[in-house]
Write a structure and sequence with these properties.
The protein is of the alpha+beta class. It has 26 helices and 9 strands. It folds into 4 domains: 206 residues, Multidrug efflux transporter AcrB transmembrane fold (Up-down Bundle), CATH 1.20.1640; 100 residues, Alpha-Beta Plaits; 137 residues, no CATH class; 242 residues, Multidrug efflux transporter AcrB transmembrane fold. The strands form 3 sheets. The chain has a 4-stranded antiparallel beta sheet with strand order 6-7-5-8, with helices on both faces. The protein has a 3-stranded antiparallel beta sheet with strand order 2-1-3, sandwiched between helices. A hairpin with a 5-residue loop joins strand 6 and strand 7. The longest helix is centred in the C-terminal third of the chain and has 33 residues. It comes from Corynebacterium humireducens.
């Protein structure tokens, strides 16, 4: 592989334009197709086979008018009267009527005649329901409770809810422009005395728009780190340009996928951008750094600052420079392929869990990483070749940027010597630190995104808070029980159904339960259950379990958005530990193949486990528990964040493991003692890995500027994970353990050594390569 990569790198350097043209044409083609066919990403998260999903499907078969509450094209307009007034006041009522008339006149909503002010709707509902319930002999107390539960007008008449349905089959089919047309009207009236906000499926999807602030911040910090690393503005720009091209192709490719798949969530393109940008810059950094080292070797000097190297390059022929690029791609490029492969394996393994939206998210991120690898191996050498002798020009004054291959002691060498002097102390400090940071993870709670977890101050969050205050916290967290009465004697069905409702009402945590739909023969019934808690409250999870354990005397299931989201969270939590086991096993096997050692893969995998546990602990402490007051809106972690984080951090951690430890093994295999090989290998890899880690940390941390809670939390968690894994695990625990193991670190049973294939990550096969 190293020889092939050498030829690829040198060819791309010599013949820049064909390689550059290929990627630029691909970018334009994907962009054009995405612009023509891309659809709006989904905000729905469901998993086939869950009890709540099966119940929902059965209910839709029995009641064709029933819609999937997680995907229906509906929304709520929440209206609150000015302080000191009610919605029944003539002036307020007139303004509400005027606003709703404008909403109806847009022609974008189905059944516009049903869009009336909450006071009129409440009166109509009362006129319809009360006679029916009185005819059934229902007590007045129950009648009042049922009416209050479904009434669009609060008891104090200050707050009302108007439910609207866009003229589309699902919320994915509603054009963003249509939603904006309605929200523009509502926002205009909100500027007056009325409080007008909105939430629900279709309106909630508007709160997750993507902005480019995060990318700009991440690129800015990355540029600074690269300038310090290379001491040259031009050289620093090479990884940035190649990463941007790769991310653009990946992002547009994800957008294009929406034309053929409904499983692409609105978080998928942002996640793909986040990962693609970080690894794209890092992979290019590794190759450009190795290219500089090969150029310095070609000059015959042990050390050159950027200015001297730029001067020497002017007198260096193109074949020599192409050879240096070939060597860089053949060595660092081999490590890039292997590092990228570990990320791909970790992400692709998420498909084993068989959760459609999570699989799509993981595969999109994996595809973006694959593009980043290919860009680093082909586009980057061509771009460097295009700049030719000017690649290390535009030197930044005051930055020497020494090459780690020279003979001078570096900060990395001084650090690893300190670790070598006291390996036990450094090992204990690292393990204890990560262990303490991991403790809060024991209290981790998972939940799916709801209006209650939306960004504070946004219309969906305000609407949720107003609704909870006026109607109770359970109003936005309804559940539906589907009672199967088919096997009950037709004469007994009303009694059995009534008894079932009474048992549901008597369950602790249920504010109210009432029949809202039946078949003509009473063979099935829908019972609306209003909890006393909001959807993300742990008590709601317990309530769902208690409801399912209740004996109603007939088969039944519980569904609704709250039940579906809770089941999704449970499924993701159930598969978390098995997935960790899969990832750790993969880490061990992959590193066993690379390093041909039992101990090195074992400590690498255990170190990865420690860094992930510590990351969970820090994230739970700050984002869920609100420690230190850094987060003003603590919320449970999003259900799929931990499992995505594990997949991503595994790949990134193995990146650093490969780039650091391969140089250690190279020195040991060439006759150095195990301790000297560890020190020397750390010296060669520490500077570039430090730069790569700082870039990843800055890129990930910058995504905390996004409005989407998942992306904000994921950006923070990834930044913390990279910091802990790179600087505590890879740069302290790993070298300390290597020093303690000494020669045993590279032990491998002979029988296993014979059957393992040889993987030339460091390009040993290029020793005899000459300039072509």
């Amino acid at each position: 592989m190293a020889t092939f990569l050498y030829r690829l790198g040198s060819a791309a350097y010599r013949r820049s334009w064909p390689f550059l043209a290929f990627w630029l044409i691909l970018l334009l083609a994907v962009g054009g197709l995405a612009g023509a066919f891309a659809q709006k990403p989904s905000s729905s998260f469901t998993i086939p086979g869950l009890d709540s999903v099966v119940t929902m499907e059965k209910m839709q078969e029995i009641f064709p008018a029933a819609e999937d509450p997680t995907n229906a094209p509906t929304g709520n307009i929440v209206i609150r009267a000015p302080e000191g007034t009610t919605l029944t006041d003539p002036v307020v009522a007139a303004e509400v009527d005027e606003m709703l008339a404008e909403v109806r006149d847009t022609g974008l909503l189905s059944d516009p005649e049903t869009i009336v002010d909450p006071v009129m709707a409440s009166q109509g509902l009362q006129a319809q329901m009360v006679p029916q319930m009185e005819a059934q002999g229902m007590p007045q107390e129950k009648i009042r409770a049922d009416l209050a539960t479904v009434s669009p007008l609060s008891a104090d008449e200050t707050t009302g809810i108007v439910t609207v349905r866009f003229d589309a089959d699902t919320m994915l089919d509603v054009p963003t422009s249509d939603v904006a047309t309605v929200t523009d009207i509502l926002d205009r009236y909100d500027e007056g005395d009325l409080t007008v906000v909105y939430n629900g499926n279709t309106f909630g999807a508007m709160s997750g728009d993507i902005n480019m602030t995060s990318e700009a911040i991440g690129l800015g910090v990355a540029a600074l780190v690269l300038i310090i690393t290379f001491g040259s503005v031009v050289a620093a720009g090479m990884p940035l340009i190649s990463a941007i091209i790769g991310v653009a192709i990946g992002f547009l490719g994800v957008q294009l996928t929406t034309a053929v798949s409904d499983d692409v969530s609105d978080m998928t393109p942002v996640l793909a951008t986040m990962i693609g940008l970080a690894v794209g810059i890092d992979y290019a950094l590794f190759i450009v750094s190795r290219f500089r080292t090969e150029l310095i070797k070609a000059t015959g000097a042990n050390d050159l600052d950027p200015k001297d190297l730029a001067q020497r390059l002017r007198g260096m022929d193109r074949d020599t420079r192409a050879h240096a690029m070939g060597m860089a791609v053949g060595t660092a490029g081999s490590a890039v392929i292997f590092a990228g492969l570990t990320v791909l394996i970790a992400l692709a393994a998420l498909s084993i869990i068989n959760i459609p939206f999570l699989t799509t998210m993981a595969l999109a991120a994996a595809a973006t990483v694959a593009i980043a690898v290919l860009i680093a191996l082909t586009f980057l050498p061509a771009l460097v070749g295009l700049f030719g002798t000017r690649v290390f020009a535009a030197r930044v004054p005051g930055i020497k940027a020494p090459d780690p291959e020279d003979d001078h002691p570096t900060m990395g060498l001084r650090w690893v010597r300190r670790v070598r002097q006291r390996p036990v102390a450094h090992l204990l400090v690292g393990v204890i630190l990560l262990g303490l940071l991991a403790v809060p993870a024991l209290n981790m709670r998972l939940a799916m995104p709801t209006d209650g977890s939306a960004t504070p101050g946004t219309p969906p969050r305000i609407a949720h808070e107003i609704t909870a205050d006026a109607f109770g916290p359970g109003r936005d967290a309804p559940m539906i029980a589907l009672l199967d009465l088919a096997e009950v004697d037709p004469q007994e069905r009303p009694v059995v159904m009534g008894g079932g409702v009474e048992k549901l009402v008597s369950t602790d945590g249920v504010a109210n339960a009432q029949v809202v739909a039946t078949t003509d023969d009473l063979g099935a019934a829908q019972v609306l259950i209003t909890p006393e808690f909001e959807a993300t409250d742990p008590a709601a999870t317990q309530l769902l379990a208690d409801l399912r354990d209740t004996d109603l005397g007939v088969p039944f299931g519980v569904t609704g958005a709250t039940a579906i989201f809770d089941d999704v969270s449970d499924r993701l939590q159930d598969v978390l530990l098995p997935y960790v086991g899969i990832v750790l096993a993969l880490a061990f096997l992959v590193l066993l193949l690379v390093f041909r050692s039992i101990w090195v893969p074992l400590i690498a995998a255990l170190g990865f486990g420690l860094s992930v546990a510590a990351t969970f602990g820090v994230t739970v402490a700050l984002f869920q528990e609100g420690w230190l007051g850094l987060i003003d809106d603590p919320q449970p972690l999003l259900s799929f964040l931990p499992i995505m984080l594990i997949g991503l951090v595994f790949g990134l951690a193995m990146d650093y493991q490969v780039f650091l430890v391969t140089r250690m093994r190279e020195g040991w295999s060439h006759g150095k003692t195990a301790g000297n090989a560890t020190s020397n290998g750390f010296k060669h890899g520490a500077r570039v890995v430090t730069a790569a880690a700082l870039i990843m940390i800055s890129v990930f941390a910058a995504f905390m500027a996004q409005d989407m809670v998942f992306i904000k939390t994921m950006g923070f968690a990834l930044a913390v994970a990279v910091a802990l894994d790179a600087f505590v695990v890879r740069m302290m625990i790993i070298p300390a353990t290597m020093f303690l193991l000494d020669e045993r670190a590279w032990w491998l049973p002979r029988w296993l050594d014979r059957i393992l294939p040889t993987v030339d990550v460091e390009g040993e096969g290029l020793k005899d390569v000459r300039t072509a």
